[in-house]
From TrEMBL:
CDD domains for this protein: TM_PBP1_transp_AraH_like (cd06579)
Top-level division of the source organism's lineage: Bacteria
Any single GO CC term annotated in Swiss-Prot or TrEMBL for this entry: plasma membrane
Transmembrane portions of the chain: 24-42, 54-73, 93-119, 131-150, 170-192, 221-240, 260-282
Biological source species: Rubellimicrobium roseum
InterPro entries per the UniProt record, alphabetical: ABC_transp_permease
Protein name: ABC transporter permease
Amino acid sequence: MSDTSLATRRTTGSTGFFANWRQYIIYIGFVVIFLVFAATLNDKGFLNPNNLLNIVRQTAMIAVMAIAMTFVLSAGEIDLSVGAVAGLTTVTVAMAIAAAGPVAGVFAGLATGLAVGMFNGWLTTRIGIPSFLTTLAMMGIAKGVAMWISDTAAVPILSPGYAWVFGGGSLGPVPVLLLWTLVLGVIGHVVLRRTGFGRRVLATGGGETAARYSGIDTRSVKFRVLVISSMAAALAGMLYAGRLQSGRFQLGEGDELSVIAAAVLGGTSLFGGMGTVIGTIVGAMMIGLINNGLILMGLDFSQQLIARGGIIILAVALSQKKS
């Protein structure tokens, strides 16, 4: 190959990167925010390994739900019930463990997610209610059921084995929560990018009518992604319960906003047809990083909300392609 050809390829690759820099904004933003916090908060322990591992622990449940939310948004739907479903699952798991042991708790948690997901999917794809309204209603129903069956009291989990596997354990310095996130991230990435189901999800969100004419059962795709989302929310609830060793209806409250923000920050389109699991995980970690840094800065909670919202808006605005 001639020197001229090599120079042309280098120039083209460089130009391509700078021309498409917006799609990398989440990774650039993550590195920039990390470096800023590292430089300004080093004396407050930001770079302490325990603090960094705490960021992972606090973000893992958001990441787990956001991985599934990537599929939902990519298919052109939305799930606002994930936080409430996680809270309900903590209660059903804790009550089942108290009654019949940890194995029963695992089955109760998975059954909770499956039941909610199938109900959301049925209302959305068979009855025709928009997923926004279906899952908004389910948010209230799940929270109400959790409050009712627990009598608004915390339900303790007295099973060290369950607590270790679902959130509280670690292998050496590595938290089990990080392993859960990595394993589910790999599975989610492979399914979305390397399987027929993933391609059908993206096709459905990119153009439902065209996808239907090409032979894709779009109702089945949407039903499945809503079930996957609720199952992921249930798993997040099981991790909450294991880490905090209790079931409480308040757990997961408000998580739906962070979950959707993580997916959108990572490059998933709210209008469907585009999603990336790796970007979603980085988006979730970025939110955790921002939360941790703002707390170490000593900002009031109100100030944290303002700063966090501003940073997220800036990141999303920069990532949008100009027409």
